[in-house]
Amino acid sequence: MSTTTSGLSAVRVGELDYLAAWDEQRRLHEAVVAGERGDTVLLLEHPSVYTAGKRTEPWDRPMDGTPVVDVDRGGKITWHGPGQLVGYPIVRLPDPVDVVAYVRRTEQLLIDVCAEFGLATGRIEGRSGVWVPEDDRGPARKVAAIGIRVARGVTLHGFSINCDCDLTYFDRIVPCGIRDAGVTSLTAELGRPVSVADVLPVVERHLATLVAA
């Protein structure tokens, strides 16, 4: 299923293996770079997988032999899997390319999505992603992660938001290389089930935020 908002085509993929999704990203990237296709966002779930960005250190990786896919995005290691909505925007950035501004727009999209479900989130200086601030339940907790790459002015990789995933998968790694903060989900924070199916249409409504004003 595909919908178009503000010139962005959103494609609901369903569940797709990480490497197959990576191949599809690269195919779309070539088409967008060549001007053969407009900006496209893939929205999907992955079977359980760990992916390591370019800044991943050996001690960030799982110690139990769990397979890890090394990828060419920024950032460190993270987990993707059932109950987590992943978005891969293949978007041409305006000239001059401002990667930081694009990351901020992606964060704002995710902050706005969380707000629609009644969860107040924000940014933490020096750390990417979207966070539930420190409170009486514990230290700051990441509910959505961002890891991107820009090649020839067009983005790859993207964001993930934890809906109702099994958070114990993050216990095997140092997620995003951060040892002094936790990982959470919409379901865990709100105390009620929030599924990928619930979050998908809300993310689609906010995709226009990715496009520079």
From TrEMBL:
Keywords, comma-separated and alphabetical: Acyltransferase, Cytoplasm, Transferase
Stored SUPFAM superfamilies: Class II aaRS and biotin synthetases
Binding-site residues for substrate, renumbered to this chain: 73-80, 145-147, 158-160
First-level EC class: transferase
Subcellular location: Cytoplasm
Reaction(s) this enzyme catalyzes, per UniProt: octanoyl-[ACP] + L-lysyl-[protein] = N(6)-octanoyl-L-lysyl-[protein] + holo-[ACP] + H(+)
Domain BPL/LPL catalytic: 35-213
PROSITE patterns, A to Z: BPL_LPL_CATALYTIC, LIPB
Site feature (Lowers pKa of active site Cys) residues: 142
EC number(s) stated in the UniProt entry for this protein: 2.3.1.181
InterPro entries: aa-tRNA-synth_II/BPL/LPL, BPL_LPL_catalytic, Octanoyltransferase, Octanoyltransferase_CS
Biological process annotations from GO: protein lipoylation
GO molecular function, one term: lipoyl(octanoyl) transferase activity
Catalytic residues (positions): 176
Gene Ontology cellular-component terms listed: cytoplasm
Pathway involvement of the protein, from the record: Protein modification; protein lipoylation via endogenous pathway; protein N(6)-(lipoyl)lysine from octanoyl-[acyl-carrier-protein]: step 1/2
Pfam families: LplA-B_cat
Domain of life: Bacteria
PANTHER family referenced in this protein's UniProt entry, alphabetically: LIPOYLTRANSFERASE 2, MITOCHONDRIAL-RELATED (PTHR10993:SF7), OCTANOYLTRANSFERASE (PTHR10993)
Additional observations: In the reaction, the free carboxyl group of octanoic acid is attached via an amide linkage to the epsilon-amino group of a specific lysine residue of lipoyl domains of lipoate-dependent enzymes.
Function statement: Catalyzes the transfer of endogenously produced octanoic acid from octanoyl-acyl-carrier-protein onto the lipoyl domains of lipoate-dependent enzymes. Lipoyl-ACP can also act as a substrate although octanoyl-ACP is likely to be the physiological substrate.
Similarity annotation: Belongs to the LipB family.
Protein name, per record: Octanoyltransferase
Species of origin: Micromonospora mirobrigensis
